[in-house]
Design goal:
binds S-adenosylmethionine; 266 residues; two-stranded antiparallel sheet; alpha/beta; globular; single chain; 6 helices
């Protein structure tokens, strides 16, 4: 397995990547100007990056784009939706608009409900080639027989006729997850990256949309969470981070994850 991270502007670095190379990208851009990233927020250019993501993604590959808006003069910018629609204009399918629900909220205001989610746009280049839906949602009706009314309602308001296999089948203990994932944010203090993802959130996307040995990209690697998940789950990693300080944090985390993995093998 190889884990490569470069202290470089991703728009420069990605020029060296072949077309149709990447199975899955899990990444998160600067959210408007909410954080300065050591002055590098100015180096982020969405449209050229999205075009490069289209070029390097394999047919059937996926991009998971985790993003949110700033609120300026009382109005959300809508940047997240604009970006999702731009990806569609490039040719990506908007496969799923998922939500990451955090444990707490950011900057509550007195005139709106407290914000506690971020968008996770799952974009695919054609139909996704790899899908392993996580099935760990405890079914409230586990063990009971499925009702015929649990089937889909049709456009005219009537219910679709249940298939013969449907009636009489017991609901299993665990069902496929809903597309809202609750995961507390990463809150380490000290000299850390200001927007580190929770490792489990990234690992769950990697398990869902890729296989062991696949090539995973994070062009905006930050503290290297996607890379650490790749070490843990035996995927190859390519990443770029423009800030030398964050690159060092990522490098250290990757080396530590590799050492831990090697220890666990003995
Ligand atoms: C939202 S953070 C990513 C956090 C990351 N997911 C983690 O878990 O640590 C976005 C990162 O993109 C970096 N960045 C901004 N513009 C960049 C560019 N053009 N090339 C590479 N990195 C860039 C910033 O320095 C910042 O660390």
């Amino acid at each position: 397995m190889s884990y490569e991270i470069f202290n470089e502007n991703c728009l420069e670095g990605m020029k060296g990547l072949a077309d149709d190379l990447v199975d899955l990208t899990v990444t998160s851009p600067p959210y408007d100007n909410l954080r300065t990233y050591n002055g590098h927020v100015k180096d982020f250019r969405f449209e050229p990056l999205a075009q490069e993501l289209w070029r390097v993604t394999k047919r059937g590959g996926i991009v998971v784009w985790i993003v949110n808006d700033a609120t300026i003069n009382g109005s959300e910018t809508g940047t997240s939706f604009r970006q999702a629609l731009y990806f569609k204009d490039l040719g990506f399918n908007l496969h799923d608009t998922m939500i990451w629900q955090r444990a707490g909220c950011t900057a509550p205001e007195s005139n709106r409900y407290y914000p506690n989610f971020e968008y996770m746009f799952v974009l695919s280049k054609g139909a996704p080639k790899t899908v392993h839906l996580l099935k760990d949602r405890k079914n409230l009706s586990a063990g009971s027989k499925k009702s015929e009314h649990a089937t889909l309602r049709l456009a005219d308001g009537t219910f679709r006729k249940p298939s013969k296999n449907w009636i009489g089948v017991e609901t299993s203990e665990y069902g496929v997850r809903f597309n809202i994932w609750r995961q507390p944010q990463y809150t380490a203090r000290g000299k850390v990256h200001p927007a580190t993802f929770p490792l489990k959130l990234v690992e769950d996307h990697i398990k869902s949309w890729s296989n062991a040995g696949d090539t995973i990209l994070d062009p905006l690697a930050g503290s290297g969470t996607t890379a650490v998940a790749c070490v843990n789950l035996a995927r190859n990693f390519i990443g770029f981070e423009i800030s030398a300080e964050y690159y060092d944090i990522a490098r250290e985390r990757i080396d530590k994850a590799i050492a831990l993995k090697e220890q666990s093998l003995f």
